[in-house]
Amino acid sequence: MSMNRNGRNIAVPSVSSRVATVVLLESRLLSRSVTNWVLTAGVLSLVVGPIWRVLGSDIGSERVTPFLVLESGQSATARYWLETADLLVLLLPLIAFLYGYEAFPKERERGTLFILGSAPLTRRDVLIAKVAARVAWLAAAIGLGVLLSGIGLILLVGGFDPVGHLLAGLITIIFAGGLLTVGSSLSVYCSTRWACLTGIVFGYLGLEFAGALLLSRVSSLVVIHPFQAYVTLIAAPFDTMYPSLTASLSDGSVTEYSFGPFFTPSLALPVLVGWICGPVVLGHRRFRREVIGA
Hints:
Elements: E1 2-3, E2 9-10, H1 15-31, H2 34-48, H3 50-55, E3 63-64, E4 68-70, H4 76-100, H5 105-110, H6 112-118, H7 123-157, H8 162-186, H9 193-216, H10 226-235, E5 241-243, H11 244-249, H12 265-287
Helix pairs in contact: 1-7, 2-4, 2-7, 4-7, 4-8, 4-9, 4-10, 7-8, 7-12, 8-10, 8-12, 10-12
């Protein structure tokens, strides 16, 4: 409660209600965006599409990708998630960045950020709500894709592992949320959408190049890369799947690089959480100093 000039008590909305209001408003705006629907269709195709790769493959045979290894005798669900993770590591970062890059530059250009700044909201409320709305939208798209792919595996393939499938889907949502948070939070630093889009393209290429470089050089720094954290977590629900770097480190010829024990879910999860929290903190530090409407 607070008092106005007449000494009367006025109910002040709680933080959760303020954030929820902006989340609902932002969600409505996202639902009217053609670009957002195109990106959603892209996410669905990335999550559902690998079913056809599973149908046309020899399930049970060994499969090796740049980040993951699948031993022979695996289930159809494990094979599906190997193929899905292989695609997501390559393309999901770009889609997630594009989901979030307009969070602030677009409203600056249109002047609507000034309206939010004049409302009874803190800068933290606005930042968290904008990021949360986009993460919720992307999570819903991935969740729908996981549901459809699960139905497809049951009807078309068989050998469905519901627990592993749902856990892998949840891990993918966390991974996507971390990537989207980077795009949304750091868009605070961009004055225009074109500047932000340019930064996203270079950021995406840098993330992909850094992942490939660290993996090829068997660098210990790869443990803090979001790709390695994701594949470490995605392999955990399946007995026949493990990160490819762990396999190379077990080779006697590279024992000097044996930091394989560090590639565990107990480390990978905090890494992904860090990729979510870090950009939010940086974005908030910049946003709270911005003069809205100037």
